[in-house]
Amino acid sequence: QAQVMESGGGLVQAGGSLRLSCAASGSIFSINAMGWYRQAPGKQRELVASITNGGMTNYADSVKGRFTISRDNDRNTGHLQMNGLKPEDTAVYFCYCDLDTVMTTGKVYWGRGTQVTVSS
Questions:
Q1: What sign does the dihedral 51-19-46-39 (CA atoms) show?
Q2: How many Å apart are CA 86 and CA 63, to the nearest integer?
Q3: Cα(30)–Cα(54) distance, rounded to whole angstroms?
Q4: From residue 73, how far is each of 19, 23, 30, 54 by CA, in Å?
Q5: In this structure, is the dihedral angle defined by the CA atoms of residues 48, 45, 29 and 78, taken in order, positive or negative?
Q6: In the 8-state DSSP scheme, what is residue 105?
Q7: 2 vs 26, 43, 48, CA distance in Å?
Q8: Strands (E), 1-113
Q9: Which helix (H) or strand (E) holds 15?
Q10: Which one of 26, 39, 55, 76 counts the least CB within 10 Å of its CB?
Q11: pLDDT per residue over 69-115, tens digit each?
């Protein structure tokens, strides 16, 4: 079995920065793709950024140039550096990891989410 856990959310003023972290643990062979979704109150969950095991990245248009996704394969962790935060970035941010484990191949695991609040 495997688990994914986020950390690093909080309250920040507009224009500020936060760094979210995502850690995968358990009987993991490898992390394939990983990334971040977010969900604001009353809105659908949307993809923020993703990164493949080869390091290819993808970003939502709304965060390009402000957010940077990265990963550390040796530590089974990933990060989302968020700069120039705006009130519209306020949401719960969820990390997902596409994992190969002892029991499964290519199964997506989700964290429970971390709240990011940006005040104007």
A1: positive
A2: 10
A3: 12
A4: 18, 11, 8, 10
A5: positive
A6: S
A7: 4, 29, 23
A8: 2-7, 10-13, 18-26, 28-39, 46-51, 57-59, 67-72, 77-82, 91-101, 107-110
A9: none
A10: 55
A11: 999 999 999 999 999 999 999 999 999 999 999 888 889 999 999 99
**Which token pair is 80?**
């989302």
Residue holding tokens 């970003």?
Answer: 59
Q: Measured between alpha carbons, how far is 92 from 112 in angstroms, rounded to an integer?
A: 9
CB atoms within 10 A of CB 12: 17
Average of per-residue pLDDT values in the chain:
96
Concatenating the DSSP letter of every residue in 33-54 gives EEEEEEE-TTS--EEEEEE-TT
Q: Which residues contact 79 (CB under 8 A, 6 or more apart)?
A: 19, 20, 21, 22, 69, 70, 71, 72
CA 5/CA 93 separation, integer angstroms: 11
